[in-house]
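Deliverable D4.2, example record:
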Amino acid sequence: MKEIHLKAPRGWINDPNGFIYYNGEYHLFYQNFPYAPRWGRMHWGHAVSSDLMNWKHLDIALFPTKTDDRDGCFSGSAIEKDGAMHLVYTGVRYDVPDPENTNCCLDDKFTAAQLHISSEDGFSFDNFRGKTTVIPPITDTEIGDKNHTRDPKIWRGGDGNYYVVLGSTVNNQGRLLFYKSADLAHWDYVNYATAEGYGWMWECPDYFRVDGSDVLIFSPMGTKDGNQAVCTLVDFDEQSCSMKIGSEFQFLDYGLDLYAPQSTTDKEGRRIVVAWLRMPEPMDNNSIGMFSIPRVCEVKDGHIFFRPHPDIRAKFTRKATSPSGIYMVKASLAEGEQLDIGGYIIRREQGRIIADRTAVIRNHEELRNIFETPVLSGNAEIEAYVDGNMIEFFVNGGEYVITNAVYDLSDKVIGNAELYVMDDTEE
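Output generated by the structure prediction step:
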């Protein structure tokens, strides 16, 4: 059976890394602690797929070996150059390891550097001889922070040079750092960008152009909504690496469970995004962590849309009379109507879409369990994808999305809806 969500093969996963279409396959690396379903000294897991649905897990791609990454290979990204795959990532070394659990450090204090490694085939990485530190720990406190500077996202500019954006912080204010390179080996700091009052640290930044617009996605820490993934339209000048960031942000996902998104282009050149589903407890296989459906990012009338990837959506062609395995639910909600998907409630109220997972979250009272979109511009067409521990539903073709971790869904769908299963699924 096809899987539309990549799941943890074992242990813990978080941020997607190195997402790239390379030599006819999608490669998705990810933060991985393979020894237990909890955060620890980070490795890079690795999976490949030809169609974004059938994923094959491979051996660990990156693991700590050098002074600058001895305590973890944190997040990063991938690019192709001269036929080889190049990865740029954050390596960390703990200032003071926790004596009771040396996979963690005390007081969140560590030193971060940016490293490079390459592979001629995208599968074999020499962790012992192939790593090079390309951006050393930051020492100028006016530029960034030696601890909290991480998550390089790389792209090739229109001038043929390579660019990296990093998340950082100065004076308790999140910011972006831009670096430039002609060869991926030698990097120069160029500029920074920030926006006042929006979190103390900006993780996992991602910049790209789509539909003639400059889009920035990042995950600010310490906002009034906690640590959340957001996106916004910006103005970016490549030559100077100056970025104008306004004050209008939208959530990547209004379920507030998704974090650390990363984008790439698919084989058709569409900009697609995946993100990590934060889960409060392990799944039945004692692993923890899933990734969202790859979503196509588009900009229309100044609003950023995230639509389910058409190759995945096209697989849900068979109508079903009852839920089975992974399934899709389609419904149109008028004001006051609701849909019950196995105990997960979606309703329309005062022009918004409200999601309530209270009945399917195993009594995690400390979690937020009711979520809502902004007021809709028109209709409320719902397309929900249901996969055991994850529900993600798209409102009006991706105008807004709500994704949540769930547990113990029932096998009933109540409401005026149509059910679909994948074309190779047995009812």
